[in-house]
Write a structure and sequence with these properties.
By secondary structure, this protein is α+β, with helices and mostly antiparallel strands. The protein is built from 16 helices and 20 strands.
Length: 468
């Protein structure tokens, strides 16, 4: 199988975060009662006119700008004609002239290397209804009918299953960062089809398409299984066919549902009820300027310029508010490790909660105080707890707990702890005194779990060595 090179291309459908559907004012909410979020457009009632959501166009332009795509200055829509029960109009509104063409996405691996995946296009389309099949009947839920989608089509630029999974994760992060979509596969807001083929030194074999994969892990596994299947067929002298497959996760195999030759002619026709839309360079620049820096720019700065670890950089880049606050303080001259320790340590839930009352100037003053004194995580936890209950300034609480820290441990505390250890762990104490020094960690753990005892863990070790 090493004689054959794997080649993968992906088609990803992303459901856009807008209140209305793509071409009507009907609303959509995931997991709503079947057929409760429908209207005249969803049911294809005669005479209903499409009403385009301009938020959908804005989302497509934002996404195209992330990919460095060429954004069309004139967009129009077409009818993709076919009949199926989940498409009662007998056509789907889509684009034959995509709003975004070309571009690429840089994908960072965990070892800090990266690769690029080129895009063929991004186009706008509407979703179909959902078919629910059981042994007795097939039911249609029209809630999803007409929901706004962006279809992202890559070039066949991916050469391993691991890279395909990394690419999908990177794409998801970028889309979530722009707040274009939630990208939750379990809710259907992100769906993926995979095109798999193999090439040898002098021959390219027909590709197959695996439809409706429901997780990134399933994408990775399906690619591996289909690659092995194709290689086995070639080695046995059998011909490969262009066909559409589905992946059976339980039995770990792919099987055919139709030949590519069975596809019908969609006979695309212009949608004359939506006039062509002109997009100026000023429109595009305005949207891009609003968004500011993109995900990859922020991530690159953290990982390469400020030498922050891969996993921590991923955590910081989960939300724009996280990374902008981190970079604000780093660019103010604070040590990156200190900034991350405060913002993404015990204070994270306090700083980033919805009703947070911690302001930039308060954090800045707090960081300045931390730079001037050695403070343990134990004190930071106490500051966090006190800030929630007392609503005092972080700096005031920090100074208060630092003063308390300087108070020596009283002899009475030492006597109480000595009696506690002697009464509960006489055997372990004898083993410790006999030379089994690793038991010190055991004693530290026991003392930290005593109710009513509050001692900085960094001081517990010193105290125990004194007692024992």
């Amino acid at each position: 199988m090493t004689n054959y090179k794997l080649v993968v291309g992906l088609e990803i459908h992303v459901q856009i975060n807008i209140q209305e559907k793509a071409f009507s004012v009907e609303t959509y909410e995931c997991n709503a009662i079947p057929n409760s979020q429908t209207g005249l457009w969803s049911y294809a009632c005669p005479g209903v006119m499409p009403s385009l959501s301009y938020q959908l166009i804005a989302s497509a332009i934002k996404l195209g700008s992330v990919f460095s795509s060429d954004i069309s200055n004139e967009i129009y829509f077409s009818r993709k004609n076919y009949f199926y029960p989940d498409m009662p109009k007998a056509y789907q509104l889509t684009q034959t002239n995509p709003i975004c063409k070309g571009g690429y996405l840089r994908v960072f691996r965990s070892d800090k290397t990266f690769f690029n995946v080129d895009f063929k296009e991004v186009h706008i389309e509407e979703d179909s209804a959902k078919s629910n099949h059981n042994q007795k009947s097939s039911n249609l839920d029209f809630n999803r009918s007409g929901v706004a989608l962006l279809e992202i089509v890559t070039e066949p630029d991916i050469y391993s299953s691991a890279d395909a999974k990394d690419f999908l994760n990177e794409l998801k992060r970028n889309i979530q960062f722009l707040q274009i979509s939630e990208c939750e596969m379990e809710k259907g807001s992100l769906r993926c089809d995979v095109n798999v083929s193999v090439i040898s030194e002098n021959h390219k074999y027909p590709r197959t398409e695996i439809k409706n994969l429901n997780s990134f892990s399933a994408v990775k596994k399906a690619i591996e299984i289909e690659y092995n299947r194709q290689c086995n067929l070639i080695s046995l002298g059998n011909d490969l066919k262009e066909e559409t497959l589905v992946y059976d996760a339980r039995n770990k195999k792919t099987f055919s549902i139709r030949q590519k030759g069975e596809f019908m002619d969609y006979r695309f026709l212009p949608e004359n009820d939506i006039l062509p839309i002109l997009i100026t360079e000023e429109d595009i620049c305005a949207l891009i300027q609003i968004e500011g820096k993109m995900y990859a720019d922020y991530f690159s700065s953290l990982i390469y310029k400020y030498q922050i670890s891969y996993l921590r950089s991923r955590e910081i880049c989960q939300k724009k508010e996280y990374v902008e606050l981190v970079l604000y303080f780093i660019e103010k001259g604070f040590e990156p490790k200190l900034v991350i320790k405060v913002l993404f340590g015990v204070l994270k839930d306090l700083i980033f909660c919805n009703n947070s009352e911690v302001y930039i100037d308060e954090l800045e003053s707090f960081l300045m105080n931390l730079e001037q004194s050695q403070v343990s995580d134990y004190i930071l936890k106490k500051v966090f707890s006190a800030r929630i209950s007392r609503k005092d300034k972080l700096t005031n609480l920090l100074n208060e707990f630092i003063k308390e820290e300087k108070v020596p441990i009283f002899e009475e505390q030492k006597i109480i702890l000595s009696k506690y250890l002697l009464y509960n762990f006489p055997e372990e104490i004898n083993r410790y005194k006999a030379g089994e020094k690793k038991l010190l960690g055991f004693f530290i753990g026991k003392i930290r779990h005593i109710d009513g005892v509050e001692i900085d863990p960094s001081k517990i070790r010193v105290l125990l060595e004194e007692i024992l």
